[in-house]
Amino acid sequence: MTGLATPWSTTLGLGVPIVAAPMGGVAGGRFAHAVSRAGALGLIGMGSAGSAAKLSAQLVEFESASRTEADASAEASALPFGIGLVHWGLDRDPELLDTALAAHPRLVSIGFAEDFAWVDRVHAVGALAATQVYTPAEAVQAADASVDVVVARGSEGGGHGDPRMGTLSLLDAVLDAIGGRATVLAAGGVSSGRSLAAVLAAGADGAWVGTALMASPEALTPDSARPVLLAATGDDTVNTSAADAALGLPWPERFPERVVRNAFVEEWADRVDELRGSGDELDGFRAEFTAANSAGDHRLVPVDAGEGVGLLRAVRPVGEILDEFARDASALLGRWR
Ligand SMILES: Cc1cc2nc3c(=O)[nH]c(=O)nc-3n(C[C@H](O)[C@H](O)[C@H](O)COP(=O)(O)O)c2cc1C
After folding, report:
1. Residue 323 needs a FRET pair 20 to 30 A away by CA distance; which of 46, 206, 294, 295 works?
2. Mean pLDDT across the chain, nearest whole number?
């Protein structure tokens, strides 16, 4: 790993100033372990379907990846990790947050947060509290609530988010609003050493990276999704709530998800309200869609990905991708020394 560090990543003992996004259905224990092993901070992600049981299973995966390492050492078994949860899903399983806090994570991210009552509980176990924000005003609210790590997440990003501002202008505004009061990470389209260098040069303490790591073998990404990711270009992606409507998921309307466009998206992206309607034909279609989702049939169900998806050209291990991020960003930033 090249010596690419910010004061924040150094404080955390990271070799590269990257936090891997807590991608539901992608960022399991093995993935988080590979990220942390490579010198960044790996997060286990529980999406809106998360539960205490599912989190416990991924914590076991993290542990066993630590134990089975050929070069298992005290250092390897003590790798830091974090956990990411979805705020509006917490009521469904009150034990989920308890389980997360009991696991001794270095950082707990609660995304799509409607309030900050959870921050004190995260601090009580000695972990850093993180959340994603979409406007400078939200960044101020988060900093006022003592959130330690504020992730400025631009509309380029994959998965769910409020697509209000592009990453660089949001980062700029968030740094202006709260720089120095909280750690600020940049998210959304940071998919190479180039974009990592850009956000670090702009003053971010690090980057929060999702899409660029999705196709790695350590991720829980279904095999059926990898060819979609490798074939897509950034202009193939779109923000839509169509799949959530078809699955009957109660995602707040302000959080559509960025997905790779397919025939379903072409047909329904502008007719989401219709998809939420009732009738035998719609019920039948929603049942078919739900079954396709369980089966990982991406001819029908779109794959989440951000605009950086066009840079994914091969299935590569997490460590190789993160090494390249650090090496390329270092080389670019070094040109200005
Ligand atoms: C497949 C996928 C699943 C995601 N799931 C979650 C999630 O469960 N919780 C969350 O806070 N963010 C989730 N996100 C959003 C990420 O935290 C982050 O905002 C995004 O990946 C950053 O943009 P990028 O994908 O361009 O790197 C997800 C993103 C992707 C691509």
Report:
1. 46
2. 95
